[in-house]
Amino acid sequence: MSKSKETSKSADDEKKIDDEQSPAQEKVIEDDKSESSDSEEDNDNEIISDLEQKVSDLKDQLMRTLADGENLRKRTLKDVEHSKKYSHISFVKDLVSSVDNLQRALEAVPEDKSSLPEPIKNLIIGLEIVEKEITSTLEKHNVKQIDPLGEKFDYNFHQAMFEVPTNDDEPGTVVQVSQKGYILHDRLVRPAMVGISKKIDENNNHEKKIEES
């Protein structure tokens, strides 16, 4: 009888111990779950942050690529336009030299052609027509002559070959054109070779007159 009571008491003690330990164990389990949940949340936030950074980097690369493509397109269009406008400038330089020779030949013809034989007259007339057609064709293709007689000297389009002492024109005025110049669109093909006016030094002129007298 006594042994049965001891056994029953022992069982009750174990149950009491288990009951006392159960809340503690549950708390530990809950703490473990909470820590695990926090860890998973931190991990998810880190993954999201990495993905957002990658998206930002890819977006930046895309924008740079698009900008580079647009710049390349603009440069290509500019190069094509430049090629269309100026690719034949070397040909124009060679051609205008021939035009110069033709114009010099026509300038050597006397103004009074009445004494010339009829075939020569017809030849000259034909050459004048050809010269006008060539000039017209050059202008049609944006090649223009620079004939600055009477204009102010401009170093961008004129090349001074000599000075002409005179008080009839303002100093720096083009008073003689030795060779006409040409421009293609807005680019200089060849400057005009000119003589420009220079003011006569009154003192030197006075001394010269004294010496002559």
Q: What do these coordinates show?
A:
With 213 residues, the protein is α+β, with helices and mostly antiparallel strands. It folds into 3 domains: 1-86; 88-141; 145-213, Nucleotide Exchange Factor Grpe, Chain A, domain 2 (Roll). It is 65% helix and 15% strand. The chain has 4 helices and 6 strands. The protein has helices at residues 2-86, 89-107, 118-140, 202-212; strands spanning 143-146, 158-165, 174-179, 181-184, 187-190, 192-198. Helix 2 runs antiparallel to helix 3.
Give a brief rundown of this model.
The protein has a 3-stranded antiparallel β-sheet. A 3-stranded mixed β-sheet has the order 2-6-3, with no helix packed on it. The mean pLDDT is 81.
Shape: elongated
| Tally of DSSP β-strands | 6
Strand order of the largest sheet: 1-4-5
Mean pLDDT, to the nearest integer, reads 81
